[in-house]
Specification:
The complex is a heterodimer. Chain A is an alpha+beta fold. Chain A is about 15% helix and about 35% strand. In chain A, the strands form 4 sheets. In chain A, strands 2-1-7-6 form a 4-stranded mixed beta sheet, with no helix packed on it. In chain A, a hairpin with a 3-residue loop joins β6 and β7. By secondary structure, chain B is mainly β. Chain B has one helix at about 170-185; strands at about 5, 15, 25-30, 40-45, 50-60, 60-65, 70, 90, 95-100, 105-115, 120-125, 140-145, 150, 155. In chain B, strands 1, 9, 10, 11, 12, 13 and 14 form a 7-stranded mixed beta sheet that branches. In chain B, strands 2, 3, 4, 5, 6, 7 and 8 form a 7-stranded mixed beta sheet that branches. The mean pLDDT of chain B is about 80. Classes of the chains: A alpha+beta, B mainly beta. The interface between A and B is medium-sized, with 27 and 22 residues.
Chain lengths: ~180, ~190
């Protein structure tokens, strides 16, 4: 499921069968690369208190599962300061990869699978932080992401192909670069 | 991604924490006049009229350095002020580069740093003395040895540095590597 598709989805209290609001934002646990909860108005429901997002609505067992922001991360999500879409994606080595277009996550577990750029994508597991200025991801050159070529952007793969002196790299597609490096 | 960039392009760039916050931006790049190494960054609030602040970012607290941002792990990386750390520091711009045997290679107009996790000063962009070295008046790039003598007026480089001069940044990275390995081969 994509971040933008989750926004606006109805939130239903299953104990009263009443719609209590809509998903106004999502809370990101960057270090865990997962969705940690949902913002409904000025309150938050933790992911663990829901069964994940259903195909038509987010269901909660009662309004007692809602709480006011209890952490800086939740607060940032409620006041919109750390909304990640359209923010620049920076690696920990200070390279900009482009502005974040969307986030793909597993609607059953909340695991962030991909960070989607306007014309590329990278692995959600690379997420390090979501702040008011930027979305920060691990660097392709540091040991943490070695061996996980599928998580790199095309520009990063090209850079690696250059280091390995692979012929014909300038005309290769992302898949061809992956095959040549793999 | 690793590459080379001119140190002055870092000025005005954001200082960004791994949590994606950007408290300040680079006001100036500070070099060690004794060694030519990068010492750190003075900082200012963001924006063209950003007022200088006393916060200082020492080089050893930089997490990663790239063309789009200077990354720090968190705001604790910022020193409350430069203190004595800036004393004796200064700018190497304007220094003349002289070989050990006394050839003037030109005036330093830019310091070139490598990016990534192990960022370092790798050389200088130099405006050559008129009509010298047949460069057609263009600026050239001179690799910096790991250690060098530097006085605040002059930078002394080994004679062999002249062999590794390049006229564009793209070929300069390998020239630096070749120069340094040639030097270390000679020493051992």
């Amino acid at each position: 499921m994509r971040w933008s598709d989750a926004l606006g989805r109805e939130v239903v209290d299953t104990s009263t069968a009443v719609a209590v609001g809509r998903i106004d934002a999502l809370v990101v646990d960057a270090r865990a690369s997962s969705i940690a909860g949902f913002v409904i108005g000025d309150q938050v429901v933790s992911w663990s208190a829901t069964g994940g997002i259903g195909s038509d609505a987010l269901t909660i067992s009662g309004t007692d599962t809602l709480h006011f922001p209890g952490s800086a991360t939740e607060q940032g999500a409620v006041d919109g300061r750390t909304r990640p879409l359209d923010k620049p994606v920076l690696t920990e080595d200070g390279y900009g990869l482009g502005d974040l277009a969307n986030i793909e996550f597993d609607p059953a577990t909340g695991a962030i699978e991909q960070l989607i750029l306007p014309d590329d994508h990278l692995a959600g597991s690379r997420l390090l932080g979501v702040g008011s200025f930027a979305v920060v991801v691990s660097s392709a050159d540091r040991s943490s992401s070695n061996g996980d070529l599928g998580g790199l952007t095309k520009a990063e793969l090209y850079d690696r192909a250059k280091d390995c002196d692979i012929d014909g790299r300038s005309t290769m597609s992302k898949d061809e670069l992956l095959a040549a490096l793999g | 991604m690793t590459g080379l960039l001119r140190a002055s392009t870092l000025v005005g760039g954001p200082i960004v924490t791994l949590n994606g916050e950007s408290p300040l931006e680079v006001k100036d790049v500070v070099f060690d006049r004794a060694s030519g190494e990068l010492r750190g960054f003075t900082l200012r609030k963001k924006g063209i009229l950003g007022s200088p602040v006393s916060d200082y970012l020492p080089w050893n607290a930089v997490h990663g350095l790239g063309p789009d941002a200077v990354m720090i792990s968190d705001e604790s990386a910022l020193a409350s002020d430069a203190g004595g750390d800036l004393e004796g520091g200064g700018d190497v711009l304007g220094n003349r580069v002289l070989t050990e045997s006394g050839t003037d290679l030109g005036e330093v107009i830019e310091v070139v740093v490598s990016t990534g996790a192990h960022a370092d000063v790798v050389g200088f962009e130099v405006e050559p003395v008129a009509a010298a070295h047949d460069t057609g008046g263009r600026n050239v790039f001179i690799p910096m040895p790991d250690t060098l003598a530097i006085s605040g007026e002059k930078i002394i480089v080994p004679d062999s540095a002249a062999e590794f001069i390049r006229d564009d940044l793209s070929g300069f990275g390998s020239a630096v590597a070749d120069f340094r390995s040639a030097l270390s081969g000679k020493d051992s």
